[in-house]
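Run log, item B.
One chain of 488 residues. Sequence copied directly from the ordering sheet:
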Amino acid sequence: METETVLPGKLKEIQEALENNNRNKAARLLTEQAKELPEETVHRLGLAQLAATIGETATTRFYATHAVAGDSSSNTALKAATLLADVGDYPNAIKMATRVVKTAKDFAPGWNVLGTLQAQQGNFAEAEESLKKAIFIQPKSAIHWLELATIHTFTPDDPLVRDILKLQNSMAATSPMNQGAYLYALSKVFFDLGETDQAWQATNTAATIMNQVSPYEKDRNNENVAGIIGAIQQNTFGQLKQSPDASNRAIFIFGNLRSGGCLVQRMLVGHPEVTAGDSTGLFSLAAASLNGISSQDLLEIQTKYENPWRDMAAAYYHMAKSRFGAEGRIVDRTMSQGRLAPIIHQAMPKAPLIWVRRNIEDTALSQFKTCFPSGGRWSFDQKNLGEHLALEEKLYEAIAPALGNALLTVNYEDMVANPEAERARIFAHCGLAASPEVVAPHEVQDNPVISSSVAALQKPIHANAIGNGARFSQQMEVFRQAYTAAKA
């Protein structure tokens, strides 16, 4: 669908603002457009989609709810629910998804979205029932199986094992994306059953398919990392204007995917002064005016704006307020924003920064076994995986000394071995006082987690995930060789 057919009124101005990386102007125009609410549902949904893309939670909610008010069809309501979830409005997203399945009981996508949202909330019994209904209606839609496998532990006498195995031949005739998702779900079944050889065969085949469908943009990633490391080495940040922002409301968590970021988030949200935490990507939106993150890019933006770092902080906290409300500390667990850590510190010098690290082989194994819903494309190939994680190590080794005391390094293994001591370190770094009201990570309520770790977070901290990389060293040999060569 062409954009021109979706957005009415201020379309041209909004498009020009986005083309010029002017997120703030686009947000203002979307708010102004709300005063002349278009009649057509497709227009309202289009505006909601655009608002979600630039991190405007309140505006997304406005257009999405008005879209459903004008058209109560299942497709419209489900689209609205998905957009609300995208901007962190999980309560209304669940209400909308529930509305969908009540009016369209045989609508499998509705049950899938509802089940996924329920799982993110930690309501696993409800989530399993919803996802089983989606599977019953659309057994060959692999996304239902993949979502269920994330929260379900398969056993030898589990009827679901029989059902998913019966699909192996027929799945070969479906799309590559569907085949890949199915094989990742199947590998989880085999891992749960202790059938390691079959699990690895399924994982490798799935990864090969997904690597072809969603190839990794290696050159672009290398360029980004080289740019920020170069800016640090050239002392570019010492040449930038000071940002007057003095807020410490946001706490940022960086690190590799599957390295323990969710556990740190839950530790922090367990403190009474911290009201919310999520993976938001909001700073990337706040910094949309940056054409890149090299030394040249950083110096160039200062010639265009009076103080771009101050503006980024203001844009970030505007979006954060729209998403989380005005009160309480918040946790931003956008792990991939690690390369933006020096820029975040430049814009918000008082914001606490945390980098989570984990044994590299355990991290690699966990990433390779995971079918990430978005991003993580390097994990579909062990050579790419090794080179990517080596690059991330070089990134950390450059950023950590540059940020000094502003950055706290936390090791996953230390959190598991001595969680109370590590939690105290984290609280102290974030300026959070000791409190008798602190809640253990697995007992935290109302903190949705979008991660394949969601089920593990509902259990007390354990050491089950430590040392798995060594157990599968033979299967991960290609990764190890690539990592060693790239790190040298």
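Observations after the first pass:
- The chain has two domains: 1-105, 218-487.
- Residues 382-403 form the longest helix (22 residues).
Flagged for discussion on Thursday.
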